[in-house]
Amino acid sequence: MQLRVLPIALVCVFVWFDFAAAQATRPAGLEPGQAEAQQRATTAPLIRQFTSPAVEVRGVWLASSSMTAAPDVLRGHLDAIRSANFNTVLIDTYFRGYVAYPGGAVVPQFPDFKGQDVLGLLIDESRRRGLRAELWMEYGFYAYFTADATKDQSMGPILDAHPDLLSINARGDRFIHRAFGDFYSICPSNPKSHEILATIFVEAVTKYPQADGVNLDRIRYADVDYCFCDYCKKQFHADTGIELKPFADASDQARLWLQWKRRQTLKAVRTITQKLRAARPGIVITSYVVGPDEMDSKAQGWDLWMQEGLLDAVAVSMYSADILPAMQRAIDLLGGDRSRLIAALSCAQQTDVYLSNIELARRHGLPGHFTWHFGDLLDDIQPLRHGPHQTPAKSPFDSRGP
Q: 184 forms bridges with which residues in the sheet?
């Protein structure tokens, strides 16, 4: 029998696809906040009487899926947000491996925007309506999204250019599989990753000096068993003297690895915020962060970020119907300082639960709330106007006067 020798490049393609296909057969996990949002029961009594603070941050995330419409439709989105007496819109700026604006030096513009300056339009129209416009850096260390990684040979602009930055788990999985698609992550530990994100974010705030703030996101590890890239193995050993390998749950080595990773996210936020504030002194910087129950699985050391005073506030995920446990633990992690704790709420909850949670956060001394997300908000506009948002409020971060 005569054997045929395949070209090496073709063998590599077969191996890659076989590996990727095998990886995609693993059960799809949940993104942070998803399991939380699926929790619909609450023991807290529903609040029917609402206060009307004159100063309160009221933000809503405007995702890229809501940004591909015609300009008049986008203006209508902002009219709806303003009519519900929100004062802040968090506009998707960095997502899926792209930026929202044309001419990005590190990553290109999201193709569906077709060269149009959608971001500039939304910022200007937000400010025209008295809304603060924050640049939401949605993807953070997630460098690329694809509907099916087994059919897409790209890992996104960043990782195609810097494959050494790919974050992998102990099994060597190259991407994070979810029911709705697949993500690639750059290594959260590597200072090169920190510098790349800082460069993108500085580019955005420099290109749009009229933007009022920056909202960071996904400054975290993909999951509990990430990252086992070469950099992490080398640096963890150099810092601790311990070889990086899968550790037994709750072992001393596992705790040490967790603390080491938490410090890497601290270094990342330190680098990013220092460069942002050097480019735009005084700019407001917040971050969406996972809730206390999930923060260790993602090694997201947001309590350390706040201890160092790196952010103006954290928007802690409270997407469940019952927000009291997460809110109280977050207050404790911040040493009782409620002034820098924003409640990140889901309007996908029943309307009366969502409205009640806004008031509940208020009554616990929080300075305001961010709502996930505009795409689910339209049914709540009138209830907000007749409930917790019946009067306008000025954001405590607004420096534009009364």
A: 144
